[in-house]
Structure formats: structure tokens, C-alpha cells
Specification:
Elements: H1 3-29, E1 55-58, E2 60-67, E3 74-81, H2 83-86, E4 94-99, E5 104-105, E6 108-110, E7 113-115, E8 117-118, E9 125-126, H3 129-133, E10 137-143, E11 152-159
Antiparallel strand pairs: 1-11, 2-3, 3-9, 4-5, 4-8, 4-10, 6-7, 10-11
Length: 161
């Protein structure tokens, strides 16, 4: 992972955690109870306020997720595989985010850890909207990340500029 990508990933995780801590303390002050079991809060916010709204998605869907660092909820928008792609059989490779035009790699957020590759379709969680918007087309591929041109296409996000 390049220093630029590592810094970007760290900055996003830190900003999300800081925002969540502020929201959690505000909820406690207001006496609002937040159920720790609620992991998917996609029905809470309207779909138009996510950072991926100007993208054409193929095999991906926008989802509102929540992490619980230090017991405090932190909600964020992410791209995950749609139900059809997540239900397909995959064996012998890894999932990775790839920008074919620049040959750069993105990353996934696996729980609260930034990873270049993941093994399971349920771990495909893309939160780096800056990476997605800075490349005209970003693909999720499955196979050997050392040979991305030979890997199987799984999904894509296209930003029309």
C-alpha cells in the first residue's frame, strides 16, 4: 500500500471515529438510547445524502453501516456487493479494488481495519469516496492482485466527469 493510500485510509478512519464520538456524547447528553445490535441503519437516512450519489454502480449498492469503536456508534456510507454478486461462488483468489486506467489499487474497510484484499464477498466494503471520485472507473476484481489484468471482474463504480 502506498503512503498516500495509507494516509488517506488513516485519515478517514480517524475522522469517522472523531465524528462518532461527538455524536455519541451528544446522544448521551440528550438521554437517547442507541441499540448496540443495530448494525445496518440504511433506512435511517435518505439515499440522496451519500457520497456515492453521482456514480453509476454495477454490482454494488450503497449501504449505511455502523462501527462501534470503544462502545460508541460511528455510522458511515459504504459500497458493498449487491445480493446477486455477494451470493456467487468464489474460490482461489482475493477481492481487490482496482482502477484500470491508472493501475492503482484501493482498499476495503474490514471491520475497522484497512485492507488491500479480502477473502469473502461480505468483506467487500468500500468507503474511500475520494479514491472512487479521482478515477473514472474503479472495479472490484477477484483473483490474484499481482496480476490484476487476469482477475475476474465482479463489480464497478463509474464516475461521469
Amino acid at each position: 500500500m502506498s503512503v498516500r493510500n495509507a494516509f488517506r485510509a488513516t485519515a478517514i478512519v480517524m475522522a469517522t471515529a472523531a465524528l462518532g464520538l461527538g455524536l455519541a456524547s451528544g446522544a448521551q447528553a440528550a438521554g437517547t438510547a442507541v441499540a448496540p445490535a443495530a448494525r445496518d441503519v440504511s433506512a435511517v437516512a435518505p439515499a440522496a445524502d451519500h457520497p456515492f450519489e453521482a456514480m453509476e454502480l454495477d454490482g454494488l449498492k450503497v449501504k449505511r453501516l455502523t462501527m462501534w469503536p470503544a462502545g460508541h456508534p460511528v455510522s458511515f456510507w459504504a459500497l458493498v456487493l449487491d445480493d446477486r454478486r455477494a451470493g456467487e461462488k468464489y474460490s482461489g483468489g482475493k477481492f481487490f479494488v482496482y482502477a484500470p486506467a491508472t493501475k492503482e489499487f484501493g482498499w476495503f474497510l474490514n471491520t475497522d481495519i484497512v485492507q488491500r484484499t479480502v477473502s469473502h464477498p461480505g468483506q467487500v466494503v468500500i468507503v474511500d469516496s475520494d479514491f472512487l471520485r479521482s478515477h473514472p472507473r474503479v472495479e472490484v476484481r477477484y483473483g490474484n492482485p499481482d496480476r490484476p489484468e487476469k482477475a475476474r471482474f465482479v463489480a464497478s463504480a463509474t464516475t461521469w466527469m
